[in-house]
Protein: WAP four-disulfide core domain 3
Amino acid sequence: EELCDGDASCPQGHKCCSTGCGHACRGDIKGGRGGDCPNILVGPCIVSCWVDENCQAGEKCCKSGCSRFCVLSVLLTQLAPNPNGTVRSDSEFEIPVP
Structure:
């Protein structure tokens, strides 16, 4: 069951985590970094991290499809709203991943 859609849809201090059958907000998750994941263009399924702390300083572990990558985070102020009301990163922040 999908009870959240990303950390931003959860209360402050909570993270949106996989339950195996969907996602739910959890407040007992330690760690994580500020900023948000940019749009990532992905080909094959590649997992190079599981949590932000697997990445270098200033990077977040971001999910795209079945892949997870360390990428530089963006601030919400750098994100532009889509016409449908969702938030996306400006194209200068999109990162193609092989």
